[in-house]
Design goal:
The structure holds two protein chains of two kinds. By secondary structure, chain A is an alpha+beta fold. Chain A has a domain of 77 residues: hypothetical protein PF0899 fold. Helices cover 25% and strands 36% of the residues of chain A. The model of chain A has no long low-confidence stretch (mean pLDDT 89). In chain B, strands 2-1-6-5-7-4-8-9-10 form a nine-stranded mixed sheet, sandwiched between helices. Chain B has a single domain, classed as 3-Layer(aba) Sandwich (Rossmann fold), CATH 3.40.50.300. In chain B, α1 packs parallel to α4. The termini of chain B are far apart. Chain B is built from eight helices and ten strands. By secondary structure, chain B is of the alpha/beta class. Classes of the chains: A alpha+beta, B alpha/beta. The interface between A and B is large, with 47 and 47 residues.
């Protein structure tokens, strides 16, 4: 819930700065490795957004798969957690290259007067 | 992460000191003022980290702690693993060497702060209300209420929870996760985010090992799998076994006075 509230707070502040009357859409990028459940976020969002400019906004969640690259052999593969084993050479020196994002990418605003 | 647990906003947190009734609450300071009358839509790029505000404040706290050379530790665990008891055991062994202060996080009551207060060190209780974790703003407020000395030790006892507190940087130097043998030895795998973030893991209540199905070496291996560089200690706060090693390790990291 506090995550949903911090999203609302951030988009509300940005929209006011832009002179918006309301926010119609919010696009989030949520990596699979950050431990955020998009469903839970959707569930909380209306309650968190009540009374803010984002009250009637629709939530677009762009989920990113976790991907790792092996520092030893260079193989690329999907990962489910920050620590993974290379399926090619069994090395544990794996760099996570995507899936750790948790961003508010953009908002679509209705112009105010 | 806390979207499923229904925890509330930071504005609800109440700071309390032992022996003082009531407490004060700062309400959220932003209003919800609407400007109606739309005349078109427009997309605004933000590319902003969701935890941006918390992370900024945490870095501010960290800068403050570093400038004053305060070693700040964030203690995390499930409820009942023995965080408060560990502090009760550790603080008397260190307080002659370095000034110690404590921030206690719980949803309600000052019972943990009262226990720390009995040790004769400054303590402040943060009651998070419905919140399930401490955040950087609560710490920022709490440190203003504490007589913090230069070159000291600040122990933050987070709300008992292995999920949400992992996401919120408070500005601490180290995260210390406590687990007890009455829990499962697969806990590091069940809550990998917490163990992945931790710098130190303390296995408590080892005096109960003969009575429970808990494999300490398996637990250690599981913890090491999610955090390779983890410092590992096994101890019993109750009998004092193993406490010496932990305190000796911590002593080496205290700021020089």
């Amino acid at each position: 819930m506090s995550i949903a509230l911090s999203i609302v707070e951030a988009v509300d502040a940005k929209a006011r700065q832009e002179g918006a009357g309301a926010i119609s859409e919010i696009t989030l990028v949520v990596g699979r490795l950050v431990g955020i459940e998009p469903e839970a976020l959707r569930f909380c969002f209306p309650a968190a957004a009540k009374g803010s400019l984002a009250e009637d906004a629709s939530l677009v969640i762009d989920e990113r798969e976790g991907r790792g690259v092996c520092s030893s052999c260079g193989a690329g593969f999907p990962v489910l957690f920050y620590l993974a084993e290379c399926p090619e050479c069994r090395s544990l020196a794996v760099q996570v290259v995507s899936g750790n994002e948790f961003l508010i990418e953009s908002i679509t605003i209705e112009e105010g007067e | 992460m806390c979207d499923t647990c229904g925890c509330g906003s930071d504005g609800e947190a109440v700071l309390r000191k032992p022996g003082e009734g009531g407490g004060h609450c700062h309400a959220s300071d932003h209003d919800h003022h609407h400007h109606h009358g739309a005349s078109g839509t427009r997309k605004v790029e933000m590319e902003q980290d969701v935890l941006h505000e918390n992370n900024l404040l945490a870095e501010r706290n960290r800068g403050f702690f570093e400038a004053k050379r305060i070693l700040t530790l964030n203690f995390l665990s499930s409820p009942g693993s023995g965080k408060t008891a560990l502090l009760e055991k550790t603080i008397p062994l260190l307080k002659e060497m370095v000034p110690v202060a404590v921030i206690e996080g719980d949803q309600q009551t000052t019972s943990d702060a009262d226990r720390i207060d009995a040790l004769g060190v400054p303590v402040i209780q943060v009651n998070t209300g419905t919140g399930c974790h401490l955040d950087a703003r609560m710490i920022n407020r709490a440190v203003r209420e504490l007589p913090l000395q230069d070159c000291s030790l600040l122990c933050i006892e987070n709300v008992g929870n292995l999920v949400c507190p992992a996401m919120f940087d408070l500005g601490e130097a180290m995260k210390i996760v406590v687990i007890s043998v009455t829990e499962g030895d697969d806990k590091p795998l069940k809550y990998p985010y917490m163990f992945h973030e931790a710098d130190v893991c303390i296995l408590n209540k080892t005096d109960l090992l003969p009575y429970v199905d808990f494999d300490a070496s398996k637990c250690r291996e599981n913890a090491m799998r999610v955090s390779h560089g983890l410092e590992w200690f096994e101890l019993s706060v109750k009998t004092g076994e193993g406490v010496e090693e932990w305190v000796a390790w911590l002593e080496k990291r205290l700021p020089e006075r």
